[in-house]
Amino acid sequence: MTYSLIVGTVAFLFAAIVGRPIVAWLSARKLGKVISTEGPESHNVKAGTPTMGGLIIFATVIAITPFTNLIGRQSILLPLAAVAGAGLIGLWDDFGSLQGRPQGGLSWRLKFGLIGAGALLAGFVLKEGMEISNANVPWLGQYDIGYWYIPVVVITILATTSAVAVTDGLDGLAGGTCVIAFGAYGVIAFLQEQAYLVTFCFTAVGALLGFLWYNAHPARVFMGDTGAMALGTGLATVALMTGHWLLLPIVGIAFVLEAASDVIQILYFKRTGGRRLFRMTPLHHHFELLGWSETQVVTRFWIIGIGGAMVGIALALQVN
Description:
The protein is an all-alpha fold. It has one domain. Helices cover 67% and strands 2% of the residues. It is built from twelve helices and two strands. It has a two-stranded antiparallel sheet. β1 and β2 (141-144) form a beta hairpin. α6 runs antiparallel to α7 (195-215). It is globular. The protein starts with a helix and ends with a helix.
């Protein structure tokens, strides 16, 4: 754990240092994100804020991991590849959502297709290459689910990536909740004595803290899908490698609430002929329209995330 925390600290310092020129480069080229007209009017002031700040996270994890956590630990190539692949897809999408770009980013079908293909490959690597196919159930033990594990991997990665992307809507919201989730799985991996996975989790935590230095309200840069998709895919992969993927909805409770609010709103809208259950979704917008300030919403989601992480770690301790 000591080594992992030191690596995490190095990752934080690296991200904080490289973040400054990255933000300056994005600003100089006016790579600002288009603010959706369907969001709260208060967000209009954010128009033009540079996006693709996930490059700070992406660059840090990719740069730090080979020197600190790869020699003799080839299995770490899987979460590293997950972060790299999903980050590149997110970068491609972000380029299309910039101000002055007519294409509007990738279609959701293409994004889901690309992430799904990568998830299917990850499923085969986990099952056949790493011989991981278990589900850890608190109080009941570990169960090998065989080839059913592969569709579980695909669903877990797709759901987590989508949920983290939906959460990325307020300054510090996705970044802070991801810090909590990766930190929790770092502790779970430590309890399993998976040192390489502990180090990877805290590398991500350090990279996120460095990013949050620039993303804290009022944000100088947004994460964008470059970061959100990389983080969601990486988090899901880590959860699967611990066998505690069933705890992911608890550890990532903030992501679940955000994604579920979108789904519930759509279903309610269709069933009632146009009525809305929430004032606006994702859920963080609903609370904004109730009068909560942006920092209140973010801080309270962090608190909920910490609670979920504590419960998740406690449940992980109950697996024999």
